[in-house]
Specification:
mainly beta, Jelly Rolls, 2 domains, 8-stranded antiparallel sheet, 7-stranded antiparallel sheet, globular, binds allantoate ion, Allantoicase
């Protein structure tokens, strides 16, 4: 009998706010003698080669502290790449088998501006995961129910050990003071957009479509499995707020043998109907296509259809927030920051 596939909690589909891809960084740790704290936020999966010894011991892909000989615990402070509301954290102890922490805690805080690690150490931390038992060589999933926007998190290993990755999944909440409502990418996660549906996530997450910068290689975009039916693949995204889309960028960079043949973009109106923004258009492989759109209606959500399958590196929908859209962005920040 085949082993059933492990079921991942739904919140793991949300973007990892701590990821280095968004600019997350590990600012400080009590110790990192065996393995560097920076590995905690690497976006790729942890790897391991047994019996690879450096001058300090076995080489691990993660953050590993020495065996404590004094009372206390080890801590690391992470500045999130995107401030947001956290729905769950993964403490991934991949390959840490005899040296994982038996218990972990995660706390979060919201501090405006650019606090130093020293300033953060004295902050008023909200506990998200309290002294929870952790297992070795596995992703430890911890759902979180905090309505507040967080900017930094603190991981504690009780008392010491190694963690390969810390993933902090949630919804980005942008600071409206730092957005220009007259000109922005309405589909960017960092502006508060959110993936609402997707036909196929086989090779990579649709969140990648709406991530900052260019995709360095195929795995940094969204790629679907080969379809063997008559349908087509698609993604829907709730925009940063209600807005007008003026330009679309459909980037097939790095998709050479698997770029879609055609794509279309539509926008959702208040009555729930979909209006075309970009009609079905032929695409070239490995190309940043830019399209100026004809003056369209106010939309709150966008849908990308690709024909028949493949993927895209990025989808950018440049435009402006309407008054209503800007008000909703401002309200969300106020509600989650108060
Ligand atoms: N063999 C080990 O992994 N030992 C330990 N860690 C490293 N990195 O060597 C340890 O005891 O914590």
């Amino acid at each position: 009998m085949e082993e059933p596939l492990p079921v991942r909690p739904e919140w793991t589909d949300l973007p990892d706010l701590a990821s280095r891809r968004f600019g997350g960084t590990v600012m400080w740790a009590t110790d990192e003698l065996f393995a560097e704290k920076e590995n905690l936020v690497n976006p790729w999966r942890p790897a391991h080669r047994a019996e690879t010894f450096g001058p300090k011991g076995q080489v691990y892909d993660g953050w590993e502290t020495r065996r404590r000989r004094a009372p206390g615990d080890d801590h690391a402070i992470v500045r999130l790449g995107l401030g947001g509301v956290v729905s769950g954290v993964i403490v991934d102890t991949a390959f840490f088998k005899g040296n994982y922490p038996p218990f972990v805690s995660v706390a979060a805080v919201s501090v405006p501006g650019y606090p130093s690690a020293e300033e953060l150490r004295g902050a008023d931390w909200e506990v998200l995961v309290d002294h929870a038992p952790a297992a070795g060589d596995v992703e430890n999933f911890f759902p979180v129910a905090s309505p507040r926007r967080s900017t930094h998190v603190r991981l504690t290993q009780h008392p010491d050990g190694g963690v390969a990755r810390l993933r902090v999944h949630g919804d980005p909440v942008p600071d409206p003071a730092l957005l220009d409502p007259r000109s922005l990418d309405l589909a960017a996660l960092e502006n508060g957009a959110r993936v609402t549906g997707c036909s196929n996530r086989f090779y990579s997450s649709p969140n990648n479509l709406f991530s900052p910068g260019l995709a360095a290689h195929q795995a940094e975009g969204w790629e679907t499995a080969r379809r063997r039916d008559d349908g087509n693949d698609w993604v829907t995204v709730a925009l940063a707020g209600a807005g007008l889309v003026r330009f679309a960028e459909l980037d097939t960079s790095n998709l050479k043998g698997n770029a879609p043949g055609w794509a279309a973009v539509s926008g959702r109106l208040d009555d729930g109907e979909w209006a075309p923004l970009l009609p079905r258009t032929r695409l070239q492989p490995d190309t940043r296509h830019r399209f100026a759109l004809t003056e369209g209606p106010e939309v709150t959500e966008a849908r990308l259809d690709i024909y028949p399958d493949g993927g895209l590196a990025r989808l950018r929908l440049h435009g402006e927030l309407t008054k209503r859209g800007h008000e909703s962005v401002t309200a969300r920040f106020a509600e989650t920051t108060a």
